[in-house]
Structure formats: structure tokens, C-alpha cells
Amino acid sequence: MDDKIHEIWNVRFINRIIDSMADGVFTMDASGRISSWNPSMERISGYTAKEALGRTCQLLQCSHCFGKACPANIKKCKIMETAYPEAKECHLRHKKGFDVSVIKNASVVRDDDDNIIGIVETVTDLTELNQARKKAEEAALRLGEIHRMDNIIGRSRAMQQVFAAISAAAASEATILVQGESGTGKELVAGAIHFNSERREGPLVTVNCSALAENLLESELFGHVKGSFTGANRDRMGRFEEASGGTIFLDEIGELSPYIQVKLLRVLQEREIERVGDSRKRKIDIRIITATHKDLYARVREGLFREDLYYRLKVFPIQLPPLWERREDIPFLADHFIAGMNKKTGKAVAGLSKAALRIFMDYPWPGNVRELENAIEHAFVLCNRKLIGTADLPLEIRQPTYPVHCNATADGSFSPKTRRKKLSKETLYELLDECDWNKAEVGRRVGLSRTAIWKYMKKFDIPLQKEG
Ligand SMILES: Nc1ncnc2c1ncn2[C@@H]1O[C@H](COP(=O)(O)OP(=O)(O)OP(=O)(O)O)[C@@H](O)[C@H]1O
């Protein structure tokens, strides 16, 4: 290819590159007149190339420029005095009159004799970035809102003790171990401690220790250096480092392998970590909150969890009671979730019907508060009256056979086992009223046959037809 053709190719390539750039690019000649204007400049400013060419960059009415003000005469622009590209964050005025947040980058182009022959400016649109920043700020605010103490519902004595423990934990830097069955609110409590502590401005990083295999969890927590294992293509910061200045919440801590238990023990003792494949020690400033639905001490006794780690973790233990042990909280929790769902769906459900509330009070809630929250969500889909009725509730809640709690099982977990629950006379009366005394319908709602309902009615001396 001779030089001429080569030059043409270069120009074409350069033009194509400039035209396809996401950033705006424009050039000005030595007199400050716009001489080129790429498609992204059209998008960012609203001015077409035809409208911009030949004008000065005052067209953009930037909020602040490279000098204090944008001089009409380009020769007086401060950019002429700078030897290197200059970048500034500012607003430009879109053709339609609104401000666009941008980063402007400008540099002077000189010929071989050092005479200025023009200026190149690039303009990066910050709108999307700002929107993402705003969303992240809003999400952080929402997270803080969810974890406000008054969003944790509980009037029972047991929950009052939990609130006192959260306040004390938030005022300290102690390592916290939150224990309780699944769905009792362990993550909620961890968040409340963080957002009420001195570290609230810092990050809250959550890691579920049961979700990853040992080697992946190690790299997730501690990070790694490039080449430390197949697929480690670059250095990566771990979650401990990410939580610096804030709190790390390690959920399902009972699932940790012996190897990671040793590594965690070292973090607790030395407050420093080493990335996988690196021998450099890095100091970390973090607060550690852990949680488990297992009976951790049972796991220690079985030799599955290190005793020294157990004692380091439970410096400040918080035990969350299962819902069936604090039934008095059920109506308040139901009201709380109904209010939340009303807001979310625009419905105006006033509460639970008497019969539905009775079922709520009788049911043992093996899935605890999460199950109650799901039951309300389920009911909202079906409910088209003022009160949530029994028919709106999930089948397993209105069925008389359901799981009931017992204490820790052989594998050290608090898990439910099954027992049959009998229908009470009062519940049966309310159900009959709700179903216009249609026994088949009552049976369907509680998962029993019509004959079984008849038998119950006979046993309770309930007449077969509504009296009066
Ligand atoms: N006391 C409470 N007041 C209001 N909402 C609660 C309460 N306890 C739990 N919740 C809600 O119940 C759901 C489950 O809570 P969370 O995830 O904190 O439970 P968990 O104990 O961490 O469960 P798991 O062990 O399964 O991870 C969440 O939506 C949470 O907001």
C-alpha cells in the first residue's frame, strides 16, 4: 500500500472510530470555531453537527470551563496555556434547556512549529452514572429503613430482650453470634446492629457460608491474586476487605469447613487477611456478625465445629425465639405485613377475619416470620374483601396436619417434625359461618372430608344446620 492510500485508510479508520465512540468528541480550529462534531455530541447536547459546525463552544453554555468563565475569544481560553489535556466535571446546557452532567476533557493540538492549530474536546455523559449513583444511594437508604429498629416487630418479652441486645450490640464493637430457626429474623437483626452502630456509613457485606464450596468460599472471603488457581485471571479483593470500615455478616456459619474455620479464627485473632496465593498480610477494620440456624454448641460437641472459634464468635450471643414461642407477636406481625402489602399493591385490606386470626394463632409456624410474611402475600393475591378470610390463606396453614416444633435434632438443627392438630369447636363454628354451613367447603378448606366434619360437629354437639 503506498503512502497516499495508507493515509486515506487511516483517516477513514479514525473517522469511523470517532463516529462510533460513546463519548462526545468535537474539534475546534485555531479561531475557536467548531470544525467537527461526532454523533455522540449530537445525542449529549441535542445539537446536530450542522447546527454546531462553525459556532464556538459557548453553544454548550458549560457551567464552568477551563478558565473561570468561557471567553468569547478562544485565544483567551485558559486551555491555550496548558501543555497537557485538562479534565473538568461540569454541566452543559442541552438544546432543550436542561442541564447535562458531564466530564469535559480538552487538549490543544499544535503543528511541528508549535503553533496551535486547534483543540480537541471529549465529553463524557454522566447521566447514567449519576442515575446509578442515585439508585445506589436510594438502595442504601431503603436498606437503612428496613433495618430501622421500629421495623422489627415484637411486643413479647422475648423480643423486648432481643431489642435490648441489639441496642447493646450496636453500641459495641463485639463479635456477635445470632442464633435462631430459619425465618426468625437473623439477617434483619444483623442489619439493625450495623445500621444503629458507629459503622452505619460503612458497608454491610453479607456472605452465605453454605452457598459455596470450600475453595470458592475461601476466595470469596479472602480474595486472591492473579494466577493463584485456574481461572484466577486477575487480582480480586475478598469480602473481608470489601467490608472494611463496615460490618461483615457471615450467615450459616455452622456450615464452615474445618479449613475455613481455622482461617476465620486467625482473622478474629489478628484482624488481618492474606489473599489466596499471596503472602502479604493486609489489615482489615471490620465488625463481624455471624448467624446460624443450627445449635452451634451441639456441633462443637459432635466435633464438627472448633470450640475455640465457637467461643470467639459468641462473645455476644443473641438468641431469636421461634414464632410459636411468642404467639402474642402474631397479630402485630400480621398487621405490619398487611400494611406493607397495602402500600405495595394499592389495596386497602383492613386485617384478618376472626377465623383467619384464629388459624394464625393456632398454626405452629415452622417457617417462622418468613412463613407468616409469605402467607400474607399469598392472601393478598386472593383477597378481594376488606378482611383476609380463611379461604385466602395457603392450604398448608388451614390444614389440620402440619409440622410442629421440637428442640434440636441429631444433626444439630432446630427443625420441625409432624403431628396432627385437632379442629377446635370455636374454629369449626367460625368456618361453618364463613362457608354458609356448607360442610364440604369447610372440609376442603381444612383438608378434611365432609364425613370428618360431620363427625366433628357431632362430637362438639353442633347442629347440622344453622339455628335461628
Ligand atoms: N420481628 C420481625 N419483624 C418484622 N419482620 C421480620 C421479623 N423477623 C423476620 N422478619 C422478616 O421475615 C423475613 C425473614 O427474615 P430473615 O431473612 O432475617 O430471617 P433469617 O433468620 O435470617 O432466615 P434464614 O435463616 O432462613 O436466612 C424477612 O423478610 C424479614 O424482614
UniProtKB/TrEMBL annotation:
<dbReference type="Pfam" id="PF13426">
    <property type="entry name" value="PAS_9"/>
</dbReference>
<dbReference type="Pfam" id="PF00158">
    <property type="entry name" value="Sigma54_activat"/>
</dbReference>
<feature type="domain" description="PAC">
    <location>
        <begin position="86"/>
        <end position="138"/>
    </location>
</feature>
<dbReference type="GO" id="GO:0006355">
    <property type="term" value="P:regulation of DNA-templated transcription"/>
</dbReference>
<dbReference type="Pfam" id="PF25601">
    <property type="entry name" value="AAA_lid_14"/>
</dbReference>
<keyword id="KW-0547">Nucleotide-binding</keyword>
<dbReference type="InterPro" id="IPR000014">
    <property type="entry name" value="PAS"/>
</dbReference>
<dbReference type="InterPro" id="IPR000700">
    <property type="entry name" value="PAS-assoc_C"/>
</dbReference>
<dbReference type="GO" id="GO:0005524">
    <property type="term" value="F:ATP binding"/>
</dbReference>
<dbReference type="InterPro" id="IPR058031">
    <property type="entry name" value="AAA_lid_NorR"/>
</dbReference>
<feature type="domain" description="Sigma-54 factor interaction">
    <location>
        <begin position="152"/>
        <end position="381"/>
    </location>
</feature>
<dbReference type="InterPro" id="IPR035965">
    <property type="entry name" value="PAS-like_dom_sf"/>
</dbReference>
<keyword id="KW-0238">DNA-binding</keyword>
<dbReference type="InterPro" id="IPR009057">
    <property type="entry name" value="Homeodomain-like_sf"/>
</dbReference>
<dbReference type="GO" id="GO:0003677">
    <property type="term" value="F:DNA binding"/>
</dbReference>
<dbReference type="InterPro" id="IPR003593">
    <property type="entry name" value="AAA+_ATPase"/>
</dbReference>
<keyword id="KW-0804">Transcription</keyword>
<feature type="domain" description="PAS">
    <location>
        <begin position="10"/>
        <end position="56"/>
    </location>
</feature>
<protein>
    <recommendedName>
        <fullName>Diguanylate cyclase</fullName>
    </recommendedName>
</protein>
<dbReference type="InterPro" id="IPR027417">
    <property type="entry name" value="P-loop_NTPase"/>
</dbReference>
<dbReference type="InterPro" id="IPR002078">
    <property type="entry name" value="Sigma_54_int"/>
</dbReference>
<keyword id="KW-0805">Transcription regulation</keyword>
<keyword id="KW-0067">ATP-binding</keyword>
<dbReference type="InterPro" id="IPR025943">
    <property type="entry name" value="Sigma_54_int_dom_ATP-bd_2"/>
</dbReference>
<dbReference type="InterPro" id="IPR025944">
    <property type="entry name" value="Sigma_54_int_dom_CS"/>
</dbReference>
<dbReference type="InterPro" id="IPR025662">
    <property type="entry name" value="Sigma_54_int_dom_ATP-bd_1"/>
</dbReference>
